């Protein structure tokens, strides 16, 4: 039906020319058009003269006329109302015109943006709307007492850090593993009481060339987000030569910092909230992988454990795993396997801002001591710098 309208429109706008066979061209040889709407069959009756030679120029003119016809919005509206009436059935949305492919010009067989959108609508009707993402697990510690938000910055980090135990796992970097190509570090944060889904993520943002040249001494900014991808706070680590420093920023405001003190074999860190030091870490070094945060009186405030993940992980990858223990969790969170988790006895619970500094310490530990320093393009071999 569509190409018939095109022929009629072309006949109105193009002057008839005589073909090399003599007589009128092909358009004037169409004497009648009989359309059987009940059977969707189109019959064409021609004159008794012989058919002309349809040249390429003729089809080009027909194509141009069809393009002009499509630009006419009124004609398109009438055509849609007449030929694109939807079929009322139990199947996906379709129409008579799309099923009658024999009545289309070849250029109309290719899918357009409208057909692609309709296909997506059909798939949505068949499969239903996409399910919403699961809600993040509830906090495993009540936001009361020292965990009560005292500023808008702490209210922003409360859903992520009001938890008794956080498990931070670094992803495997396959380019670094096979080719020695340093990639941006990525971590997943999981609440040990609700291990079904992560509660947040950490992703490094750094310069490509700086990562390859400076390696673990490179400057970077790591964004800490919740499970929905919303930024909670940032940790910023500038270039360092002898001792490293990492800063914590919430909503663009610097709230804390972690300074590493130089020692020949011990691993010593000072943790500050503003200009006030609230904790210190003094690790004996070597294969001792527990980093305990203590106050000025030597009382335990929190603890960071670096877990052993197996010989293959530790020998060939940087995919470390860290457990941050903040103290006792609520009884309602001790369900299933979480009931077997032994809580850390602390002198006092860390505030939400102090916990953000503790997370930054875990990121600094991973880059200072548990990241490979080499791997210059040799597969499975780490060459120390």
From TrEMBL:
GO molecular function, one term: phospholipid scramblase activity
A Pfam cross-reference name: Scramblase
InterPro entries: Scramblase, Tubby-like_C
A GO CC term attached to the entry: plasma membrane
Stretch list, region Disordered: 124-148
Biased composition (Pro residues): 129-140
SUPFAM superfamilies: Tubby C-terminal domain-like
Highest rank taxon of the organism: Eukaryota
Similarity comment text for this entry: Belongs to the phospholipid scramblase family.
Name of the protein in its database record: Phospholipid scramblase
Organism: Papaver somniferum
């Amino acid at each position: 039906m569509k190409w018939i309208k095109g022929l009629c429109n072309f006949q109105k706008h193009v002057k008839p020319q005589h073909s090399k066979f003599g007589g009128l061209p092909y358009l004037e040889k169409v004497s009648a058009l009989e359309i059987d709407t009940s059977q969707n069959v189109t019959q064409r009756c021609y004159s008794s003269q012989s058919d002309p030679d349809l040249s390429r120029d003729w089809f080009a003119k027909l194509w141009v006329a069809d393009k002009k016809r499509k630009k006419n919005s009124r004609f398109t509206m009438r055509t849609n109302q007449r030929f694109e009436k939807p079929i009322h059935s139990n199947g996906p949305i379709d129409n008579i015109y799309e099923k009658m492919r024999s009545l289309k010009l070849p250029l109309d067989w290719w899918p357009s943006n409208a057909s692609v959108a309709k296909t997506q609508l059909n798939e949505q009707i068949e499969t239903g709307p996409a399910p919403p993402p699961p809600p993040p697990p509830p906090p495993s510690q009540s936001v009361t007492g020292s965990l009560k938000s005292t500023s808008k910055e702490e209210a922003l980090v409360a859903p992520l850090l009001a938890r008794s135990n956080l498990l931070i796992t670094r992803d495997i970097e396959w380019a670094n593993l096979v080719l020695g190509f340093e990639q941006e570090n990525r971590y997943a944060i999981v609440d040990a009481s609700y291990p079904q889904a992560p509660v947040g993520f950490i992703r490094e943002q750094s310069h490509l060339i700086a990562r390859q040249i400076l390696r673990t001494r490179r400057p970077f900014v790591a964004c800490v987000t919740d499970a929905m991808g919303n930024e909670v706070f940032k940790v910023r680590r500038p270039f360092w030569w002898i001792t490293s420093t990492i800063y914590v920023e919430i909503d663009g405001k610097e709230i804390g910092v972690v300074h590493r003190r130089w020692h020949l074999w011990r691993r010593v860190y000072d943790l500050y909230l503003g200009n006030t030091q609230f904790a210190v870490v003094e690790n004996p070094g070597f294969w001792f992988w527990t980093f305990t945060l203590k106050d000025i009186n030597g009382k335990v405030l929190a603890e960071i454990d670096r877990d052993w993940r197996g010989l293959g992980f530790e020998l060939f990858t940087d995919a470390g795993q860290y457990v941050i223990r903040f103290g006792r969790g609520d009884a309602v969170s001790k369900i299933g396997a979480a009931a077997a988790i032994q809580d850390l006895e602390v002198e006092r619970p860390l505030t939400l801002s102090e916990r953000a500094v503790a997370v930054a310490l875990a990121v600094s530990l991973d880059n200072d001591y548990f990241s490979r320093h080499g791997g210059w393009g040799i597969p499975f071999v780490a060459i120390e710098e």
